[in-house]
Prior knowledge:
A: alpha+beta; seven-stranded mixed sheet; 26 helices; 34 strands; about 25% strand; B: alpha/beta; Rossmann fold; nine-stranded mixed sheet; 11 strands
Amino acid sequence: xxxxxxxxxxxxxxxxxxxxxxxxxxxxxxxxxxxxxxxxxxxxxxxxxxxxxxxxxxxxxxxxxxxxxxxxxxxxxxxxxxxxxxxxxxxxxxxxxxxxxxxxxxxxxxxxxxxxxxxxxxxxxxxxxxxxxxxxxxxxxxxxxxxxxxxxxxxxxxxxxxxxxxxxxxxxxxxxxxxxxxxxxxxxxxxxxxxxxxxxxxxxxxxxxxxxxxxxxxxxxxxxxxxxxxxxxxxxxxxxxxxxxxxxxxxxxxxxxxxxxxxxxxxxxxxxxxxxxxxxxxxxxxxxxxxxxxxxxxxxxxxxxxxxxxxxxxxxxxxxxxxxxxxxxxxxxxxxxxxxxxxxxxxxxxxxxxxxxxxxxxxxxxxxxxxxxxxxxxxxxxxxxxxxxxxxxxxxxxxxxxxxxxxxxxxxxxxxxxxxxxxxxxxxxxxxxxxxxxxxxxxxxxxxxxxxxxxxxxxxxxxxxxxxxxxxxxxxxxxxxxxxxxxxxxxxxxxxxxxxxxxxxxxxxxxxxxxxxxxxxxxxxxxxxxxxxxxxxxxxxxxxxxxxxxxxxxxxxxxxxxxxxxxxxxxxxxxxxxxxxxxxxxxxxxxxxxxxxxxxxxxxxxxxxxxxxxxxxxxxxxxxxxxxxxxxxxxxxxxxxxxxxxxxxxxxxxxxxxxxxxxxxxxxxxxxxxxxxxxxxxxxxxxxxxxxxxxxxxxxxxxxxxxxxxxxxxxxxxxxxxxxxxxxxxxxxxxxxxxxxxxxxxxxxxxxxxxxxxxxxxxxxxxxxxxxxxxxxxxxxxxxxxxxxxxxxxxxxxxxxxxxxxxxxxxxx
Amino acid sequence: xxxxxxxxxxxxxxxxxxxxxxxxxxxxxxxxxxxxxxxxxxxxxxxxxxxxxxxxxxxxxxxxxxxxxxxxxxxxxxxxxxxxxxxxxxxxxxxxxxxxxxxxxxxxxxxxxxxxxxxxxxxxxxxxxxxxxxxxxxxxxxxxxxxxxxxxxxxxxxxxxxxxxxxxxxxxxxxxxxxxxxxxxxxxxxxxxxxxxxxxxxxxxxxxxxxxxxxxxxxxxxxxxxxxxxxxxxxxxxxxxxxxxxxxxxxxxxxxxxxxxxxxxxxxxxxxxxxxxxxxxxxxxxx
Lengths: 813, 287
């Protein structure tokens, strides 16, 4: 199909060495599909035919450069075709047509929230730039983006994660006219690290090796960049065996007068930073296919090779050039390399790239490889001719390579030349607007899991120890310590807190402006197992968790922005897509009620691994990242108990909601009573808690999540080095729950355990008038945690030392 | 980040050195500023090309980070630049009795450039030269970020820590922080001269194993100065504890009124005002 022949005049110009013309205009359907497959274009027949028709009208065939450019630009990774597409959705037998799920739910929620805020809208730029932008203070806006780098990390954990963090740092840097990165966060999902070696399928790396490689990759890049890694989490489920999930995020500060970016006709296209190489070819399309046991051989070239110092140098230069106003526009070279960076920047104006000018790591790259390479550490800037000399001099002084590779033309065409010969010439409108939409079927039916049959154990101490020692609940200190969370000197609440600096903080707080008291509380929420019961409540719970983590430290719930990161299976399978519909709808419902706009996000599909005729699919996984504004960080609180004699309150009601809980999982069950969210009540609780914390009424606050109340109280006790006594009958909701284990391990949403100091109890209660809030116990001198009903043997009685040991040991790798 | 920021007269001037991979430059500059200095971020190429002159400054700070990626070994490339590329200016700076502080990566640089331990400093030849110590991989084998306690073992001549006899707490964040001597002789001289400025201890001031000593450093050494006390290097980061809310347990009331690290910068500024500013006291070191 891909015959080599000299380009006819109609194809642009004379033939160019290394450029192939691909016959699509005369190809049959089967031939079109094999072109797509052979070149890893990841385009389906409909898309291939649309391309064939376009070139038929042009009376020529495309060059491989054009075909590859279209494939990258139209990739799922870049265009989010599934989320933006048409879905035939059937839920419990009832069908409907959804035209653009993304617009209806994620974007829709933000639109509705902004409409309600009216003149008080604090969103600045959402879903339009490389990262979302919201107001922060008089001088700076806050910029936030979280990405995934799953497929590369499956093949090369270190390199994949390394370039995952490297890539997301360039997003805020490529937002507006360049934001200064102020923190990183990351969340990983792996199969359990003690997975039996003998059961490991062919072509898959052991999860412990992946874990260690990923942590090292993120560590080495993030630390070298001088960006503190302040928040994250680790989750374990064996369905991540073939497809680990690596979420990396970066927050930044953008000067308020550097939001608007627009390249002007005549501006130079300048590539800054790393050189172009053969690493990272086909990353965008590669991420849109399922992995199998041959991927390591066939697709390793899609993994980039990172070099943090090259990126750090580019960052330093760009921030200086930003202050000097030397450029009009900036974007990062991510998926699709130059083709998408230049293509997106010049979407409304037109570009001409002289590909032979691009500095290469080594010779021998074909023109399409230069255009498409996703080699790291490259930024593309639009520099007006009058500033070029100053800009180049600045780069030269800092040992940063900068090269003019073309111009913004005003022709509204995407033109690429190689040694003055045209090798690609596509209308911008077709490149960016030509991708066809087509309907996909989606279905969701409520599953019915067997309910647990075991009786409530009399003594729950050992159950608590077991839950504390599960990989999901256990201490992540081994990971956290390897990240520099102090660099930039803005740290207020660290990831680990308490008397021994080892308790699990709910959210990290930083002051990104040196000398200022204004901060950001950064948190995340993820509720993987609930999706096995209902992705709707999984998504609702993830938002609630992110929110309560931020609120627990003193973040303002009315100034909290969130990001969505959907990592899903194959969207051509209707059940996977049905899960997406359920989850997205919860995102809309809960976000609108909470008033937390989505400002950016990302989706990653096809996280499935095929081996021996079987498929390992990840569970649908939605990460919600949150950042809440903190007006005065001196009001923040940490989760560790502070002083014996203080009152312990529980805020929020406990229901019989053990479905998908850590407790059920530790007993081998899923169940069906998934935790739900009452968003109206939750919003009131968040607001009251924010008032109580900023009003100085709270000494410690911890949210209840994995492992429920028992785990939350235990963590507060051993983090503070203090004992505690809790009367279970006082817990809000206790009267409706007949089993002690259910009461203590239920994972109901919107709950907090709070330490209130002497003399503050009445005022604290007043804040929660009409809301579930009760004093349940007292912080005690000594080291015993005692939880139970007053007239019976305690259900839990253990020394905090023993509990802490159980919690700290499992992941001390 | 600003280039060529104007400095205020009457204040000591600190040069905060930048090269590829240095990443604690802004907070180091900030610490000097709140301590009363005027501070500039200066790229090493600006010095090498004569665009900036070290003569115009009273304090040189080599901040933390991963200079040149710490390829080869931590700080080695930048150390070579100090002792080869801009050796004249660096040596003159030290010879004039001006102040030098190296923090974390900067400490590694000073050691590998031979500026520390600087035994002969009092005698004259005090600049860059042969290396007699090194800072090596942590015993734990990995990069670690944690808070440590530091105690001054004896009254050292270090001008940066003058009067700081109490136990202080600061964060460390490094993968190569283990100080190793080349010989018993070096070790003896360092102790005899009271050039050990800080040791890692627990909160009560007792030395101990990991993690009290976070990297396995010999004699638990966290920071040292040269014989004149004007060149100081340490692995922990004083610039990261200049306000109480940076303390890991400030929510437990353990932070005190101000950060433990700021005194190091204030001492430098006070000394520079007194000894190095033209209007101040007479230079007491002449060569």
